[in-house]
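W.,

You were right to be curious about this one. When I first looked at the sequence I had no strong expectations either way, so I just let the prediction run and decided to look at it fresh. Below is the sequence, 183 residues in total, followed by the output.
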Amino acid sequence: MLTAGPVQDVLLLENILELQSRNLPGNLSQEEARAQGFVTLKHSLSALRQLHDVLPSIVAQRDGRLVGYALSMAPQCRSVVPVLEPMFRVLDELARVGQPLAHRRHYVMGQVCVAKAARGTGVFDALYAAHRAAYASRFDLLVTEISVRNERSLKAHARVGFRDLYRYQDDTDSWVVVGWDWL
């Protein structure tokens, strides 16, 4: 049975890091990364704890085992993961020029990952449904950025309701900022 909801047991944070590590580009073949997707950022346990303390992440479990996660990141936590500062500058600018972030209660999807054996079984959709159930009363909009190279992730996010907001290039990659508007 699949269950998805906010992290209740902080020991799951270590399981998140294990799943994350298995899906970093350096641990995947180029073909697997292209076909199955990948995560771009390696978090520390300390960073995950700080993010979790402010806005618990969402996890999916099947038979008591972690099969996916979707990290939550409140805007006030931007300094916890300094490598994401370029994304936050883009979000600041989008808000400043009146794009969908202006005067909107929003937070950031820090990263989403589904275990290889659980892909295609509804885990991705369950993670995002649990995000909406947990946070729609506090936020109007969920935003994230996705590498343009990660076609599987771009398609999956579009399928659950995310729409492109902006595209940009930084020193590491080309990115698509996407948002899921809950109003």
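Here's what jumped out at me. The chain has one domain: 2-181. And, maybe more interesting for your project: The helical segments are 12-22, 30-36, 45-54, 85-96, 123-135, 151-160.

Coffee later to discuss?

I.
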